[in-house]
Target: S1/P1 Nuclease
Amino acid sequence: MTSPSSTVKILVLAAALAAPAQSALAWGASGHRMVGVLAASSLAEDVPAFVRSPYGVAAIGEYAREPDRWKGSGKVHDTDRDAAHFLDLDDEGKMFGGPKFTVETLPPTRADYEAALRAAGQDSWKAGYLPYAIIDGYQQLVKDFTYWRVLVAAEKNTTDAQKKAWYAADLKRREELLLRDLGVWAHYIGDGSQPLHMSVHYNGWGDYPNPNNYTQSKGTHGAFEGPLVKAVAKDDEVRALMPAPVDCACSIETRMVGYLTTTWKQTEPLYQLEKAGGMVESDPRAKAFVDARLAAGAAELRDMVTMAWKASASGKIGYRPEISVADVESGKADPWNDLFGKD
Model:
């Protein structure tokens, strides 16, 4: 990897076409930490204070690096998880080499997606499954916030000293777990702002028609998202580029489609900039591109967290029957058995 002070050329995600795409990293440590920190520190005041606290913000920033840090854990571990970082789309925004899905027309579950890919001689470990990682993490966060709301209400409502003590202790556990879940999920939201995570051209243009003679360099990835980001991206400057919060009043699936499609459309502009010699730390065009992409990731994470928090207000816990947040908050339902365990 080149040093931050050396000339930096754009990196194009993943390993070369000849190598497994799963072996590549995403944004480097600086980029993923920045996305997590800027998002968490920009949340509205109605999001629980522990998430927005200095400890919470720092924890989310560090956990956002975790899916890259756990790489190399072993063949089973890495083979299953590494493809969560990307989705390979061609120049028409369709899945390469397999069913011609767009982000918008992906099957509803990863199992359905896998079945369709296998029917075409492909699999999600090669094609990537970033959209499903984003939806999965969102749904987990909604459930975490749901349990948090229930525990807060249960501790407040109970007059039993032993139950009150257990609720308080479990609330602390839930908060730690929630920060971890949110932080790890932040990694995949960050991946989704990097155009090369959304393209078959992830490490040089590759073995595709290349009339514009875009770079085939397989050494640009690490330089771009590591040293270049570290050299040019500053928290306050990226924060200033974050758009105002947007409530799409839509499902997570719909929101994810818009976000990832917008990112995919930045693939060729990235190559155009590299070809023009602008992807070096001394060129303001490089900084503008990096800052804009990091700001997009941070803003999307901020808005998706807010979306999850709001959705949790109508959440439920337990089984047969489920108990709603509203019923616990009103005192209509006692959640003890569902929280402590009914077995």
